[in-house]
Amino acid sequence: MVDHEKELKYAIIDKPPFCAAVHTIPVKNVLTRFFYIEKDGMNYVDLLNLSNTDVFRLATACTTSGDDERNVLKMDKKNFGTNFELKQDDIGLDVLGFIDNNFLEGRDVIKCTRAEIHELNVYGKGSFMKKHNTKDKRKRENTFASLIITFPTPECEGGEFTFYGNDRSWTWDSVKALRHSKPGSVAYVAFYSDVDLDVSPVRKGHLITLTYHVYIQERDNTRPVAIPRGVMSNEEAFKTSLYNALKDPTFLPDGGYLGFALQCMYPIEQENSNLKHLLECLKGSDAMTRQVCEQFDLPVQLKAVYTDIEYGEDELQSDFAVDNVIDPFYLRYANEEKFLDEKGWRVCPVNGNGDVMGEQSVANNRPEDNFRAPVVWITKKKEFSMFKSMHHAEGWGDELYTVEGFICLMAKVGCNDSMQRASVSFS
User: Fold this and answer.
1) Which pLDDT score is estimated for 109?
2) Partner of 339 at 20 to 30 A CA spacing, among 200, 229, 252, 311?
3) Element (H or E) spanning 288, and its range?
């Protein structure tokens, strides 16, 4: 029997250590020129329109790598310049925004990345790079990741990138990705600095790449912003797992909710803060989760879930999911009815079969709780997604009471005979 909860969870948290995408640049764009020093002086080429002659002259101007790990030509950054920019708003190109969105999760979402160009590489027929790791060198350089951009060249085959980490490997074929894209496209891949990499031998033609070192820095503005996103490296796995769960009649047969505690940290004001505006500002796995759920027509909401609510003898008997982060002052008058007035509902943890989990949930499953929402928690709350408020309760002296909660995504799943489940398809 398939454990759909586990499959969904690991599809989110077990991400490959790289992210890759392809972007098409308009033909009239002139920001792809590459200027370099050769024997007879200066020359330049258009990186989007490289002829065999251009590639030959570039290769002639390069030097050998000088080590046994890679049979590849290189050109140091001191010998070239380019007007190619990683961010071009007029054509929707934002490579660093893409890296931020895929790599910066947890507390790091309040930061951003910057990149410094490192070298040009020319792989001819038979050129390769052996599996190697330069993490010690990159650690000294304080690099967070590396970025490799591949430009289209005539009749290139081979040169696949393979990444190694956690006893697993993943392959990205930038040449194939470009071959199946529109003319004038570039392919880019970023990978963490502690990852091993090899490049398979080029079987035909030439592979031309620009390599950048990527660093983390503080973001000037820490307010949440919407970041353009491409296809994340774990998106296909999550989409497949969710599809399989929805097509399984034993998974939430009577319907319910999938709960996803946020994987990133966001600045949230704890004073009646409505969470709807954050939907468009989700990052990383949070944004991917929302997008895939909506592809399967699962309504998605952001909720503040309040837990461990102490209020003297009137301790609330349930966890509550509400639309707003409630002002601590309001909580001094808290009771179940007031929480429900905040467009909220009681949370009832269940497993994938819809069975109630935990003694407390069973004990509190009173007949009057007909609107308790069955929730299958896929990802658990993290420290950075939690908030805790302390308040005085009138009439209880100087004693402080605490209210603890966390922000999560809730995706509503229909019952087995619903149109929602019947119309699920994978494309």
Assistant:
1) 56
2) 252
3) helix 284-295
State the Cα–Cα distance between residues 46 and 33, nearest whole angstrom.
5
Q: What is the pLDDT of residue 400?
A: 61
Q: Which amino acid is at 24?
A: T
Q: What is the pLDDT of residue 399?
A: 60
Q: What is the pLDDT of residue 228?
A: 46
Residues 6+ apart with CB under 8 A from 8: 238, 241, 242, 245, 258, 378
Give the list of residues 6+ apart from residue 232 with CB closer than 8 angstroms, or none: 15, 19, 101, 102, 284, 285, 288
In this structure, which amino acid lies at residue 352? G
Length of the chain equals 427
Cα distances from 305 to residues 233, 375, 382, 406, in angstroms, run 29, 12, 13, 5
Burial of 28 (0-12, 13-18, 19+ CB in 10 A): exposed
- Does residue 144 contact residue 215 with C-beta atoms inside 8 Å? yes
AA letter at 412:
K
How high does pLDDT run on average in the chain? Answer: 78
Q: Strands (DSSP E) along 275-417, which ranges? A: 300-307, 319-322, 324-325, 345-349, 373-379, 386-392, 400-413
Helix or strand (DSSP H, E) at 139: helix 135-140
Closest CA to 202 of 149, 132, 123: 123
Q: What angle do CA 117, 121, 122 make, to 5 degrees?
A: 155
Q: How far from the centroid of its chain's Cα atoms is residue 36's Cα?
A: 36
Query: What residues of the chain score a pLDDT lower than 70?
Result: 1, 27-30, 66, 105-110, 133-142, 166, 220-233, 267-274, 307-320, 323-346, 348-372, 383-385, 387-403, 426-427
Global confidence as pTM: 0.65
The token pair at 168 is: 């697993």
The residue among 402, 401, 374 whose CA lies nearest residue 388 is 402
- Any idea what DSSP says for residue 238? H
Contacting residues for 114 by C-beta, under 8 A, at least 6 apart: 96, 214, 215, 217
18 is written with which tokens?
């790289």
311's tokens: 């209020």
- How many angstroms from the chain centroid is the CA of residue 32? 28
Residue 45 and residue 35 in contact, taking contact as beta carbons nearer than 8 Å: no
